[in-house]
């Protein structure tokens, strides 16, 4: 198996790790919300968890199929929405986590 044949799988694993990381942060925020009794933090934890599920359930499979299609056709992957949207998701998650740490 060559590196080109494994590129879609590596891409899928990277997206899955990102989604799981976002879900993990959502879980930590939810735990902190229950410890402190802050409803707003619980809402933020739920929103972060939904973002993680969106990455895992929607964006990662779409990106996998897209990269696989481009590898099979031997064309460049020129899509910019997916990396930008997952970057925005990670930055938003980091921002929510930072605010939660400061306010706790």
Task: Walk me through the structure.
By secondary structure, the protein is mainly α. The protein has one domain. The chain is built from three helices and no strands. Helix 1 runs antiparallel to helix 2, helix 1 runs parallel beside helix 3 and helix 2 packs antiparallel against helix 3. It is elongated and about 55 Å long.
Question: What are the salient characteristics of this protein?
Answer:
elongated; 104 residues
Residue ranges: pLDDT <50 for 5 or more in a row?
none
Give, in order, the helices and strands. HHH
Roughly what fraction of the amino acids lie in strands?
A: under 5%
Number of strands: 0
Structural class: mainly alpha
Tell the overall outline. elongated
Compute the gyration radius: what is it?
Answer: 16 Å
State the helicity in percent bands. over 70%
Determine the N-to-C terminus distance: 50 Å
On the 0-100 scale, what is the average pLDDT?
88
Topology:
Elements: H1 3-36, H2 39-73, H3 81-103
Helix pairs in contact: 1-2, 1-3, 2-3
Quick summary of this structure?
This protein is mainly alpha-helical.
